[in-house]
Amino acid sequence: MYNFINRTNYKYRPRITGKFLERRGTPPQPIITAKSFSLFSQPYLDRINKCYKNIVVINLIPKGPLADIVKFIHFPPLSEFKQDSPCNNIKKCGYVLSSLDGCNNQGCDNLMVVDEIPNLMSYLMENGYTVDTSITKMFNQSEIRVDTNTGNKLICYVTYNG
Fold first, then answer.
1. Phi, psi of 8 (to 5 degrees)
2. What are the extents of the domains in the chain?
3. Which strands make up the sheet holding 70-74, listed edge to edge?
4. First-to-last C-alpha distance (Å) of the chain
5. How many Cα atoms sit within 13 Å of 134 on the Cβ side?
6. pTM confidence score
7. How far apart are CA 74 and CA 11, in angstroms?
C-alpha cells in the first residue's frame, strides 16, 4: 500500500505544518495568538481524585495576560464505550485554563472548573477583555452546535482590547 494511505512509519516522522515542526504529543507552537476566542465547559475525568469535573477549555491561545494561564493537556477518555472513529472524532488534547484560585486539595491538577467562571469574568474585565454577547447569543440560539463530541457547552466568545 501507499505510505500516505496506511500511514507506515507515520508516528516516527515529525510533520511540518506551516512554520513549525509538530511532534506527536506536544502542542503546536502558536504562530499567532488570537484576539478573539471562545470558552467552553467540557467534562473531564480527574483520574487522581476519581471523579468527573466540568473544566473551562479555550479554542485558541489568546492575546494578553490570559495566555499566561493557558495550558495544553491530554484529555483522558470519559468512557471506554465512547471510542474515536472516522465519523466520531473525539478530541484527545487541547488548551485549558489553569485555576485562578490556586490548588487547595491533594492531587490537584489545578484546572479551572466552571464554578470559577464568576472569578474568570472579573479577571477578563480587569485585564482588557470584553465578552461578545451578540456572538455568544447567536450561537446559543442557533441549531448549530460547536465542538459537541466531548459534551462541550459554549460559555462565551471573548475579545481582547489591549
1. -60, 130
2. 36-160
3. 70-74, 93-97, 51-58, 36-46, 153-160, 129-131
4. 52
5. 1
6. 0.74
7. 17
Cell readout for 122 is: 472579573
Half-sphere exposure of 91 (CA within 13 A, CB side): 20
Return the residue matching grid coordinates 493537556: 73
> Residue 80: how many CB atoms within 10 A of its CB?
6
Q: Give the H/E segment covering residue 139.
A: helix 133-141
Contact (CB, 8 A) for 125 and 156 = no
Exposed/middle/buried for residue 144 (C-beta within 10 Å: 0-12, 13-18, 19+)? exposed
**pLDDT tens across 94-149, in order?**
999 999 987 645 556 789 999 999 999 999 999 999 999 998 888 888 877 666 56
